[in-house]
Amino acid sequence: MTQSNQTKYYISPLHSDESDFDDSDCDPHFIPGSTSKAPSLLRSGATKSSCSSSSSSSSSSGSDQEAENALNPVASTSRSTIQTATESNVPSEVQDTEKEKKEQWGNNFSVNADRNQVKWHDIKINSVIMKLYIFLSCIVVIHGAAISDEKCDGITIDGVYYDKEVLKTDLDRPYSLVVDFGTNVLYFSYNLYHTDDIFKTAKINLDTKDFAKLDGVENGFGQTVDQTNHVLYIGTSKGIYKYNNTDNTAKLYAAHDTDIGDVYFKDELYYSEFPSLFVYTVKDGQTERFKDLEETQVTHFAIDDEEDMFYVNSTGLYSQKKNTKDSVLYKEMNYGEGFRGITTDVNGKVYICFSDGIYKVNKHTTTVEKMVDVDDAFGAAFDGNNNIVYANSTSLIYLKASENKNC
Question: Which keywords does UniProt give here (predicted)?
């Protein structure tokens, strides 16, 4: 039977103790560690009974001798093949030691040395695998620890996680929030005294967190931004002021000596007057009644990206398409119960702030849907990335979308 040069056979040495015999010792093609054997070359003489028999009869001895005679040529050939295949990978000092032991112990040592060489190679492979396993396990543990150490004290809105950052505390009823999308500066009003409604306009840079009060404005109550020109308009009890961001000052712009209820800018400046609650527009510094809502009282309002004006009064929340007189009721309210503010995001979508949270307008169902729970909310706004800023009775909170957190 001819074997290719790449085939290797592992021959078990002859045993002196016949209790150690098994089928592998009778089969020169047996591979240690395998449950399968190649077809035996000794079918006529190396049967299980002839290998394991303890009889001293001459016939049994003859069979053993015949099997051994048949085995020796195959074993010699196999040993030669194994030795040739492995010697090139064995260090010279190992080969010298092997040669000395081979001379001392005979050919049986060569087979055992080959086996030991194979076992030593297997141990090296197993050692590498174990080290790789430990390394990967450490990576998993470290990554898991990093995830578990992440702080997840924010909120999730529409599947997006938002970190919660407190911008400023110790404020009394921060109100009428608006952000200049271009400069990322938040403008708002707050009450100066707990016992009296005297308001002050201030600003916070959402990037640097710098806080400053606006000079030259008394009792500023409402703010709006011309997002195209980055101009801030402030409604006060004395009229509408125009703010100069360069020197942090404001000057009276329109509606002199008029108590302003609310202001909003979209293509032109709108405001509601107190106590009549009628809506006006400002063009070139001159005011005129807004004809679409000529006989409708309005406390707060905003205009969306489809030219629908959403407004609130003592009976509820409504919308009305510009240049029409037809209004749509979204929510009934008795004297504006719970209402705290109205705003638009960077895409011109309308949001309503009630005392229990922030709601978004659903124009398909003509309803409002809660988006964020807030305890004692006082206002909301959006920055240029559509992140949310909101106020409760004492603080300003910034919600920033975080795509890298596993929360």
Answer: Membrane, Transmembrane, Transmembrane helix
